[in-house]
Amino acid sequence: MEDVRVTAQETTQSLLSEMKRQLPRIASMLQTNIDELHVIDYSWFPREYMSTKFRDKIVSKTGVLPNLPHIQRRRLQYPGQVGIGIYFYENHLDKNLKYCLYCCRGTYSDEVYLIVPKGKLLRLKRNAIALNKLANALTTPPVLAEGMLDNIVQNTVGFLLKAKKIERYGVKIKRGVLLMGEPGNGKTMLCRHIQKLCSQNGINWGVITSADIDQAYGEKTLNDLFTAYTVSFFDDIDIQYMDRSKGNGKMACSLLTAMDGMFDGGHLVRVFTTNEEIKDMDSAFTRPGRIDKIMTLQKPDEGMRIRLVDIWPEEIRDNIDIDDCIKRSSEYSFAELEAIRTFLVTNKVLGDGSWDLDSAFREFDSRKDENQKRGICGFQGESMGSSNQNMTQGPPVEATPQQDESEWKKK
Question: 386: which residues sit within 8 A by CB, 6+ positions away?
Answer without folding.
Answer: 195, 206, 207, 233, 392, 407, 408, 409, 410, 411
